[in-house]
Amino acid sequence: MGFPFENRPYFELLETCRLVSNTIKHGDGTSCQKLAENAPGLLQGLYQLGIGTEDPKADKLWIELETFTKFAWAIDRFWNEFPDRLTVSISDDQ
Question: Would you say residue 67 lies in a domain?
Fold first, then answer.
């Protein structure tokens, strides 16, 4: 859609927020594992210390107000920039 947001300063926060959302929706699994790898501080226990050795558990997810505020900032930045950077090309085939 012409908006390469992967290089925006908020991309990593949005990606972490996506993993949090998927962990909440789906519980233990792929997103929870990726969250443990990418943001171990969001999981209580050994993962929070960066030394998790067993499979991460969704019920160990813990979001502090500061992290929530950062997620809100990233989402706000994305939606405020997105319309200005959106480009749509329509071909004659449609």
Answer: yes
